[in-house]
Amino acid sequence: MFANSPVDTIAFAGRDLFVKRDDLLHPAFSGNKARKFAYFLEHEFPGITQVIGHGSAQANSLYSLSALAKLKGWQCDFYVDHISGTLRDEPRGNYAAALANGANVIDVRQLLTANSLPQVTCLQYIEQQVLPQAPLAMFIPEGGRCAYAQHGVNQLGKEILAWATTNHIAGLRVFLPSGTGTTALFLNQYFVQQQADIRVLTCAVVGGDDYLRLQFSMLNPDPLMHPRIVNVGKKYHFGKLYYEFYAMWQRLNNTGIQFELLYDPLGFIVLEHYLQSHGSGPVMYLHQGGLLGNETMLPRYQRKWG
Ligand SMILES: *Cc1c(COP(=O)(O)O)cnc(C)c1O
């Protein structure tokens, strides 16, 4: 289904860095979530007419699920805990693009309040009220954290391995910032299973190293399969604005490639520190897309720091 995403070379931290451009995977369906949802795109699901997801109203997974649903001819119902008034009045980014794809974005808090129902979480609502009445629906857990993600991530691993082989690159390390760690774990596992001399390095952008290690263990209890976690060295809260993130993002713009503002700034800060103390071997950064999210993140940064 997907063509191989290209690999570019940029100058970073006084050296060459390869960038795997998963942001360019497919015009309507790109980045991390497209890899994770590729299984659903590439298989037939007779009888299924609807996909159900949940998460934040600004999540990359909302947009990607809406794109998947459109390609499959499915209805997309996406449950969120809350939609802010600003976003509802002036849709932008992932939210706007998902609406344009025909997604129904359902504000669970508002729904419960309007019907005087007890306040439960989004996931509880889906499990208790929605799924029992939707036998023709495919439910996808938040952020695509599921075994199905392995299918598309293996394909990504295959592309990277073929690229390294063709270009005679030995001892490649692939760096990507992690949320749930699903992508990093399945990618490293692929390289270990293929006995490739490629390994994955990552850092925890959501939660800390212990949280990330726990996520790895839930997907695969064998620590030999786990990516190496490079410690961030400082506590950051996911989704909050930090001046050093904005400064790194602006620096990265000079490479001619646009990165996103939630995961990439911390990814590159950690990678830069790592490169300063870990020799000159070949390193590839995985660009995981998510650029639509900049439409909501960038104005927040600009309001704060110009
Ligand atoms: C979802 C996402 C991630 C995190 O992926 P995990 O597999 O949850 O670690 C990183 N970057 C972008 C752009 C994403 O959309």
Explain this structure to me?
This protein has 306 residues and is of the alpha/beta class. It folds into two domains: 7-32 and 147-305, Rossmann fold; 38-139, Rossmann fold, CATH 3.40.50. The chain contains twelve helices and ten strands. The protein has a six-stranded mixed β-sheet with strand order 1-2-10-7-8-9, with helices on both faces. It binds pyridoxal-5'-phosphate (PLP). Pyridoxal-5'-phosphate binds at residues 31-33, 60, 143, 177-184, 260, 263, 288-290.
Descriptors for this entry?
single chain, 306 residues, alpha/beta, Rossmann fold, 2 domains, six-stranded mixed beta sheet, four-stranded parallel beta sheet, 12 helices, 10 strands, binds pyridoxal-5'-phosphate
Structural class computed from helices and strand pairing: alpha/beta
| CA-atom Rg in angstroms | 19 Å
Query: What is the CA–CA distance across the termini?
Result: 41 Å
SSE sequence, one letter per element: EEHEHEHHEHHEHEHEHEHHEH
Number of helices: 12
- Helical fraction equals 40-55%
What is the total tally of β strands? 10
Mean pLDDT: 95
CATH domain fold name of the largest domain = Rossmann fold
